[in-house]
Amino acid sequence: MTGAASGIGRACALTLAREGARVAVSDVGDERGERTAAEIRELGGEAIYLHADVARESDVASLVDGTISHFGALDCAVNNAGVTGSASPLHETSLEEFRGVLDVNLTGVFLCMKYELDAMLPRGAGAIVNVASGSGIVATPGLAPYCATKHGVLGLTKTAAVENARSGVRINAVCPGVTDTPLLRAAIAGSEQTERLILGSTPSGRMARPEEIAEAVAWLCSDRASFVSGESMLVDGASVAR
Fold first, then answer.
1. CB neighbour class for 129 (10 Å; exposed up to 12, middle 13-18, buried from 19)
2. What pLDDT, in 10s, does the model give residues 85-128?
3. CA 154 to CA 151: how far, in whole Å?
4. What's the pLDDT tens digit per position in 162-198?
5. Do 47 and 23 contact (CB within 8 A), yes or no?
6. CATH number at residue 166
7. Sign of CA dihedral 176, 180, 186, 189
8. Residue 212 sits in which domain range?
9. Hey, which residues are catalytic here?
10. Which residues of 54-92 are buried (b: 16+ CB within 10 A; e: fewer)?
C-alpha cells in the first residue's frame, strides 16, 4: 500500500485491514506512515511500515521483498502514491516540474506493477489496484503533467490487465473525483472562493470522503470482483458524467 501516510492511502490501508488484510504500509513520510500502521495494530489488525520512494527502483524492490519476507506472500497491492505538482499552464511548466510529477505518478506505478507482477505471477493469483483520477479521463486545465500521468496510469492498467488476463492476476484502477484529503485542504489553504469553485464542479455538491474511495479499492482487491480486470472505475459523484 503506497502513499499510505494520509488521505486516500491511509483510508485504503485501514479499510483493507478491517476486511482482514495484513497490510504493508509504505510512504516517504515515515512518522505519519508509522502512525497509520500503529493505528491498524491498535484496531486489532496486523501491519508493518516500510519506507519507499516509488520513483526509486531499489526502494520499490525492497518494498515488495520486505512485504513478502514479513507476510509470506503478496496477495493484493494498491499503488496510490502520487503528487499533484504546481498549477500552471502547460507552456509555463518547467521540464523539471514535469519530470518530477512523471517520476512519482507514472514511473512509480510502472515500477510497483513490475515488481508486484513478478511476485504474483508465479503463484497464479493476485489483485493490483492503481489509484488514478478523473483527470486520467478528462482534462484539468493548469495540471498538464498530472493529467498526462493519470492518463498514463490507465494505459498501464489496461495493458497489464490484457497481458495477464489468463494468469489469475487482475489489474484495475480507481479514478477518484475531488476528495477531502489533507493535500487538497492544503491547496485550498482557507480560500472560501477556491472551495466554492471546487464544490461547484461536482454535481453532488460535496467532496468525496477518503473512505468512500477506499471502499471501491477494497472491493476491487477482493474475490467479489473476481471477473473484473482492466476496469477504470470512476468514484466521483458523477463529475465526469456531466
1. buried
2. 988 999 999 999 999 999 999 999 999 999 999 999 999 999 99
3. 5
4. 999 999 999 999 999 999 988 777 767 767 776 777 7
5. yes
6. 3.40.50.720
7. positive
8. 7-235
9. 146
10. bbbeebbebbbebbeeeeeebbbbbbbbbbbbbeeeeee
Placement of cell 490484457 in the chain? 162
How far apart are alpha carbons 242 and 240 in whole angstroms? 5
**pLDDT tens-digit readout, 32-81:** 999 999 999 999 999 999 999 999 999 999 999 999 999 999 999 999 99
The DSSP bridge partners found for residue 126 are: 169
Domain-embedded: residue 2: no
For the chain, the domain total comes to 1
32: its cell numbers:
505519519
- Report the distance separating Cα 31 and Cα 25, nearest Å: 12
